[in-house]
Q: What sequence folds into this?
């Protein structure tokens, strides 16, 4: 039985695309069973449709609390027997409802070399600091924001001051590293 993945995203979904393509091509012995998105209208939703991936798209505002929407999410993950949750640009802090049910099975990709430059503006912060070596981190998700145990990292050099260029250089590295890391995790 192929491993069942859930991918959570809020935006463009290029990492979702890389993971879904790797599954479709047989590069990953896995299936994206659901894509969870907290931003109705996000571009990632169309990408999921193109791959025929089921989606759970919700508006956090229409729930009374984080616990309420995470309870819905946990129900879906349980029903789909998800082995691994891959956060891929999910711009929301995972709460205790989801952590209680899935901690140890949730990973995230972060566009900086943790523990430096945590948070939502990692690339902008790294450029403002003036670093010359940038990178990507994949880590386990726990209650500590961007603070879980590191699984994989990859660095690249850039000597400039354009965050858009750092994103452009980092993207293909993200896609490759995410697929490679998922492959290792679902084997072990
Ligand atoms: C990536 O830069 C990732 O590191 C960060 O959010 C971004 C998602 O990009 N967590 P995309 O939606 O996968 O293109």
A:
């Amino acid at each position: 039985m192929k491993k069942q993945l859930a991918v959570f995203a809020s935006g463009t979904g290029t990492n979702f695309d890389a993971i879904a393509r790797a599954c479709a091509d047989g590069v990953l012995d896995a299936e994206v069973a659901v894509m969870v998105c907290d931003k109705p209208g996000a571009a990632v939703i169309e990408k999921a449709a193109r791959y025929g991936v089921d989606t759970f798209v919700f508006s956090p505002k229409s729930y009374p609390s984080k616990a309420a929407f995470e309870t819905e999410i946990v129900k879906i993950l349980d029903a789909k027997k998800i082995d691994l949750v891959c956060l891929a640009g999910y711009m929301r802090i995972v709460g205790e409802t989801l952590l209680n049910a899935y901690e140890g099975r949730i990973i995230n990709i972060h566009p900086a070399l943790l523990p430096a430059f945590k948070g939502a503006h990692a690339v902008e912060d790294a450029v403002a600091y003036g670093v010359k070596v940038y990178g990507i981190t994949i880590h386990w998700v726990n209650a500590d924001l961007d603070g879980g145990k590191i699984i994989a990292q990859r660095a690249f050099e850039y000597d400039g001051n354009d965050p858009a260029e750092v994103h452009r250089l980092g993207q293909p590295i993200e896609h490759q590293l995410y697929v490679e890391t998922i492959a290792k995790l679902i084997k072990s």
